[in-house]
Amino acid sequence: MLKLLCVTAHPDDEAGCFGGVLSKYSDAGVECSVICLTAGERAANRGGAADDEALKAMRRKEFADSCHHLGVTQCQVLDYPDGALDRQDFLAVTGHLVQAIRTLRPHVVVTFGAEGFVTAHPDHGMAGLFASAAFQWAARTTRCTAQLDQGLTPWQSKKLYHVTSKFSLPERPTVSLSPVTARIAVGPYIHRKNEAFAKHTSQRPLQPIFEHAQQKHGEDELFHLAATAEITAMGMEIDLFAGIRE
Ligand SMILES: [Zn+2]
Question: What counts of helices (H) and strands (E) characterise the chain?
Fold first, then answer.
């Protein structure tokens, strides 16, 4: 079975940034997993939560509902601090993701680029940096060796993609986005993507911003091929699993 792992920073990223491809590939029989590094407890929209712990619990539930709606079979919210991924121990967070990759053994990993996608959120950029290092390190016998001593084996995922866009958001810092090398048609899945985003009821004030960005993106989700296990000439792809066999 083909497998895809998506690494995000906050509950709602999976729907807002990756909801089309998660739906599309789940429907195609790909086993899709999402790991979200924070529970999103610093969000400006509090959903009526009394404190950070209450908001964490609320957003974990919303994340699970959203993932279920998208067809994601394995989803996990870790407990790194929201808004502070740039101040975490790089080895610890990357090691956590190395362990996940060695356990889940995905063929394709999707995440953010260092710019943080169109929102320029530093947590997005950091999630992408951790996940990109983990993509490389998971395959090496010389990295995170304690995991190997405990029975995990190295795993080389075939391709790493960073989500990208053709525009910056005017209300956010301008970002330097990665060039588009994969244009994935998700037209039939836009409705389900919107529904998944709406599962994040605590973030309802963001829905108009999300839908505006969604309209600008049209019926494609755009990606940048950031690394491949087998060196190939760069060309425009229409399938994240192009050239990959089980
Ligand atoms: Zn986010």
Answer: 8, 7
Question: Coil, helix or strand for 68?
Answer: helix
Question: How far, in Å, from the CA of 91 to the mean position of ligand 1?
Answer: 22
What the block records as the tokens of 64 is 């699970």
pLDDT in tens, 82-126: 999 999 999 999 999 999 999 999 999 999 999 999 999 999 999
Residue type, 116: G
To which H or E segment does residue 80 belong?
A: strand 74-80
Distance 138 CA to ligand 1 centre (A): 25
Distance of CA 59 to the CA centre of its chain: 16
The torsion angles phi and psi of 84, rounded to 5 degrees, stand at -140, 25
Tell me the DSSP string of 38-100.
E--TT-S--TT-SSHHHHHHHHHHHHHHHHHHHT-SEEEEEEEPTT-GGGS-HHHHHHHHHHH
CA atoms within 13 A on the CB side of 122: 8
* 143 C-beta neighbours (distance < 10 Å), count: 18
CA-CA distance, 128 to 38, in Å (whole number)? Answer: 13
Distance, CA 8 to ligand 1 centroid (Å)? 7
